[in-house]
Structures are given as C-alpha cells and as structure tokens.
Specification:
- The complex is a heterodimer of chains A (123) and B (190).
- With 123 residues, chain A is α/β, with parallel strands linked by helices.
- Chain A has a single domain, classed as 3-Layer(aba) Sandwich (Rossmann fold).
- Chain A has five helices and five strands.
- Chain B has two domains: 63 residues; 112 residues, Beta-Lactamase (2-Layer Sandwich), CATH 3.30.450.
- Chain B contains three helices and four strands.
- Chain B is rod-shaped.
- The chains are: A alpha/beta (123), B alpha+beta (190).
- The interface between A and B is medium-sized, with 22 and 26 residues.
C-alpha cells in the first residue's frame, strides 16, 4: 500500500518547512508548490490524495487555484484544506463556495493539522 | 411395572437436579468471566483514553518543535539581510499569528530605526503601544527589537509556545542578520 500523497502549496518557506516536518513525520508523501499556478500544475500532473493550500500566494491565489481544480474532471474530487489568515465568515464563505472541503486558521496548530488531515485521509 | 416407572422417574429427577447443578456452576463461572472481562474492557478503555491524551499532547509538542525547527532553519539559511527580515516577518505572521508587527535596529545613540514590518505605515508605530517586545541580542548587547502590535482575531493571546519562539528569535535573528551581512560583504569583496 502506497503512502497517501499531500500537496503543500504555500509561498512561505517557514510554513512549508513546518508542515513538511509534521506531515512527513506522520508518514505522508509530500509534494511542494510555492504559488497557485504551480499548485494547479502539480495537482493536475500528480493527482495527490489531498491538497493543503494557502490563500495568499503569487501568480494565482489559493481560491483561484481551487476554482480551476474543481472545473477539471481529473482534479475536481481531490480534497482541499485551505489555510486562512483571517477567520471571518465572508472569507470562509468564499472558501467553501470555491470548493474547499475544510479550512485551518493561522497560526497552524500541528495537532489540529494532523487531525484534519486524518479525518479526510483516514488513519 | 408401576414400581419400575416410579424408580425411573426418581432417577431422572435426580439426573435433572445434577444437571441443573452443573448448569448453575457453569453459569457462575460465566458470570465471573463476564465480570473479569468487563473489568478488563474498562481498564483498556481508560488506558486507551490515557494514550490518546498522551498522543494529542505529543503531537501538540511536535507541532511546537516543528515551528522552532522551521524558524531556526529558515533564519540560518537566509542568504542576505532582506531575506532574514522576510523570514522574521513570516515567523511572526505565520507561526505566532500577528497581523501588525515591526522589526527595529538600535542606532548607536540608542534610538530605534524601523527596518521592516507588517500592517504598519512608513512612519512606524510607537513601541510603547506594543503588546509584546522582543529584544534582539548579540554578544549580550541589544542590537534591535521586534514589536508585536496586534494578533490575528482568532489568536486570543500569546502562549508558552510563542514565548519559546520569541526566545529563539531574540538569540538567532541577530546572528542570522550578522552572518547574512558578512556573506554580503564577502561577496562584494570577491
């Protein structure tokens, strides 16, 4: 059985390093993207089991990237957890409108991140 | 014939009573086993709950250590001073959860010069209004300061993990700035 693959999309190397340590340590295989366009390209080519997507990124925002993924047959079912800076209802509404499955607020708590990932991918 | 039938009935009755005794004994053994199993299940449930709590605590600590590791790694991998400032901002914004902060250098006269920040204008912000200030020290000398003015709405207050990050920043951010400066100077010379 292969390890579940997670695409981490974030332009912050600090956040990427932290998420890589937590999820890599839990046995997940990781793919990395540093902007929204790269996230879309990698998701299309590699078909990860889950995408962890930051909202504010260069080239394409996380919202734009998810909208594009949802329009494409091969990627429309890939679950996406959005990482949001502000937990305002309006932002969360946009989050779910564009097709995200769940969200995590910054600053990301490692235990919450693992719990949300497991609830989608199973243990 | 009648006598024979009566004896047979008594024998059967006795056998039934003996059988009943055996069943009662078997039932008692089963009851005892059930009580023992029930106690084991309760014990295992409690143990499972304790382990789940320990796992949750371990994962929380893992997350905090991952934060410290990520912060340290990014600070010391920064190639130039601008990148060090960006990393400090990323740490404070993404790992602490602040939407308004500034980084200052201490001038020779002791005053502060703002180097960079998030969510503040060019005029800087009065550091006396900060909710947290982190002195940046090198060789026991204060060479600058990080001031946190506002946290994200979903972050109610600073916690012990944030203070660990501030302690790390206080010591390692000035070192990273210093070595990035040395690298830049070396590159200019070469």
């Amino acid at each position: 059985m292969h390890n579940k693959r997670i695409l981490l999309a974030d332009d912050s190397l600090t956040a990427l390093t932290m998420h890589r340590m937590i999820l890599g340590g839990a046995g997940y295989e990781l793919l990395i993207a540093q902007d929204g366009q790269e996230a879309f390209d990698i998701a299309t080519a590699q078909q990860p089991d889950l995408i962890l997507m930051d909202v504010v990124m260069p080239k394409k925002t996380g919202f734009e990237a998810v909208r594009l993924l949802r329009r494409q047959e091969s990627t429309k079912a890939i679950p996406v957890i959005m990482i949001t800076t502000r937990a305002e209802p309006k932002i969360l509404e946009i989050c779910f409108q564009c097709g995200c499955n769940d969200y995590i607020n910054k600053p990301v708590d490692g235990a919450v991140l693992l719990a949300k990932v497991r609830s989608i991918l199973g243990n | 014939m009648d006598t024979l039938r009566i004896e047979s009935a008594e024998t059967r009755l006795r056998r039934c009573e003996e059988q009943m005794e055996l069943w009662r004994a078997e039932q008692d053994r089963r009851d005892e086993r059930e009580v023992a199993l029930s106690s084991t299940v309760t014990h295992l449930r409690e143990e499972n709950q304790r382990l789940a709590q320990r796992q949750a605590a371990a994962e929380q600590r893992l997350g905090q250590l991952a934060q410290l590791h990520a912060a340290l790694q990014q600070l010391h991998e920064a190639e130039d001073q601008d990148t060090v400032l960006t990393v400090i901002k990323e740490i404070v914004a993404n790992l602490v959860g602040s939407e308004c902060m500034a980084i200052y250098a201490t001038r020779t006269d002791g005053s502060l010069e703002m180097l960079d920040g998030i969510g503040i204008g060019d005029e800087g912000t009065d550091t006396s209004t900060a909710i947290m200030t982190v002195p940046l020290r090198r060789n026991d000398r204060v060479v600058g300061m990080i001031a946190i003015f506002k946290l994200l709405p979903q972050k109610p207050q600073l916690d012990a993990a944030d203070r660990e990050l501030f302690a790390l920043l206080s010591k390692h951010a000035p070192l990273a700035m210093h070595y990035a400066g040395l690298r830049a100077a070396y590159a200019n010379v070469v």
